[in-house]
Design goal:
alpha/beta, Rossmann fold, 7-stranded mixed β-sheet, about 45% helix, globular
């Protein structure tokens, strides 16, 4: 399932592991002024269907190819936050000729790059353990998970929006995503990227600190790095104006050059 607005070059918005397409509601109106903007629900998320059997993380990339083909686009601009950025990188590794540019926000090459063993164990203890071992529902972990990701200036509305998207996760699909995404160990070699790339990171992101993004940008040819003040992990929700301005400035430059 997707939300789509506007006309122009195809721009696809990819949500994080605890999100869905509604996380991009502050971006669609601005981005759709100059782009055919599509926000998806990944398989097993939002209004997209659940699926039988285990998940291979690269299934998301193959799904994304079908979305691009559906809209008859030769290439797409990809904007992914957190796991969405990991999906964008995976897609580029598999289908580089179908990518026009990359916006990689609050993301990582692989989970181990963002979190050490202790931090990763804590992350999973807030999510996987309650669902698998304690019989809880996503709504039971939503408040704690949201609080752990948001920055110090996040409002009650920001918390409510993020907690709501976590609450509506499909439990079994979310578990399969965690089990597939966290150990995924076929990261993109950033030095191989041959399209313009923008790295966006929040000043107070507890999961993906700005220094991680700087290191990734330094490895990537033709890249830019931008740190957004006052934000935690959900930059597009916490600081939508700054996020939108940074992305559109980058994309307008890229399309003008192209």
């Amino acid at each position: 399932m997707v939300d789509r607005e506007g006309e122009g070059p195809l721009l696809i918005l990819l949500h994080g592991i605890g999100g869905n397409r509604t996380n991009w509601r502050a971006q669609l109106p601005d981005f759709s002024k100059t782009f055919h903007c599509v926000a998806w629900d990944a398989r097993g998320y939002g209004d997209s269907d659940d699926y039988e059997g285990p998940l291979d993380f690269e299934d998301f990339a193959h799904d994304l190819l079908r979305v691009i083909d559906h809209f008859d686009a030769e290439r797409a601009h990809l904007c992914g936050l957190s796991m969405g950025g990991q999906i964008a990188q995976c897609f580029y590794r598999l289908y580089p000729e179908r990518v026009a540019s990359l916006v990689l926000a609050a993301t990582f090459t692989h989970w181990g790059a963002a979190l050490g063993d202790a931090a990763l164990e804590h992350y999973l203890s807030l999510r996987l353990k309650p669902l698998q071992e304690e019989g809880k529902a996503p709504s039971d972990i939503a408040d704690a998970a949201a609080s752990a990701l948001l920055g110090p200036t996040a409002t009650e509305d920001h918390h409510a929006q993020l907690a709501n998207s976590i609450s509506t996760l499909h439990k079994e699909s979310y578990i399969k995503t965690l089990q597939s995404a966290v150990p995924y160990d076929r990261p993109l070699e950033l030095e191989s990227i041959r399209v313009p790339s923008l790295y966006l990171y929040g000043e107070h992101d507890p999961l993906c600190p700005p220094e991680l993004g700087r290191k990734m940008a330094n490895r990537t040819p033709d890249s830019r790095f931008f740190e957004i003040a006052y934000s935690g992990h959900l930059i597009n929700i916490e600081q939508p104006k700054a996020f939108n301005e940074a992305v559109l400035h980058f994309l307008n430059d890229v399309t003008a050059i192209g």
